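[worker-b] picked up task from shared queue
[worker-b] task type: protein-ligand structure
[worker-b] ligand name resolved to copper (II) ion; SMILES cross-checked against name lookup, match
[worker-b] sequence length check passed
[worker-b] input payload:
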Amino acid sequence: MFVRCAYLISIFIVSYVNCETRTAIARLVSQNVNGSIEFTETTAGLRVTGSIIGLPAGNYGFHVHELGDTTTCDASGSHFNPDGNTHGGRDHTVRHVGDLGNVLFVGTGVGVANVDFVDDVIALRGRNSILGRTLVLHEQEDDLGLGNSENSLTTGNAGSRVACGVIGIKSPGEPWNSATTVSPSVLLFLLALSFVFRT
Ligand SMILES: *[C@@H]1O[C@H](CO)[C@@H](O)[C@H](O)[C@H]1NC(C)=O
Ligand SMILES: [Cu+2]
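[worker-b] inference finished, payload out:
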């Protein structure tokens, strides 16, 4: 993760600014469904892994919704879409940040979905951070915006929500704030001091 991290160095301080690889987790549990999905930082983007059991074989819409309210799955709001885009698939250039396409359940009867992909739009820091938002599994397949209907470009016609879970911190346990322990004004002061004492 070093490419995405910054080191602030002055004559008085060396701050190591949140460079550890972050992992988040969401539990998807409902009457029929049981699973855990993890999101781990890699240099290529967030690796999304885990397995979910409980739905018949097929594709089911899989999104990050904008709110971390899981009073009901509907309370988690719309797809996380900070750029005001239309709905799309995970590999589309125009998509909601939260558009993760579908997960495929396989098997007869009670199916299992083994999830493993890397997505370079969702993140665990910055503007596209999905931390504190909600992972939602839908009852139908997401048409990825290609369904030729109005809903297609907002929800992908994925139907109602069968399970949802808030995306929370798994590791590290240390603070995730992007701020350093030193405020910018203090940093500027220290930089000025180092400049003065240089001669
Ligand atoms: C969900 O799966 C986990 C791990 O396999 C298991 O420990 C847990 O008891 C299951 N929960 C439910 C509600 O079935
Ligand atoms: Cu959704």
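[worker-b] attaching auto-annotations
[worker-b] The first strand starts at residue 7 and ends at 9.
[worker-b] releasing lock
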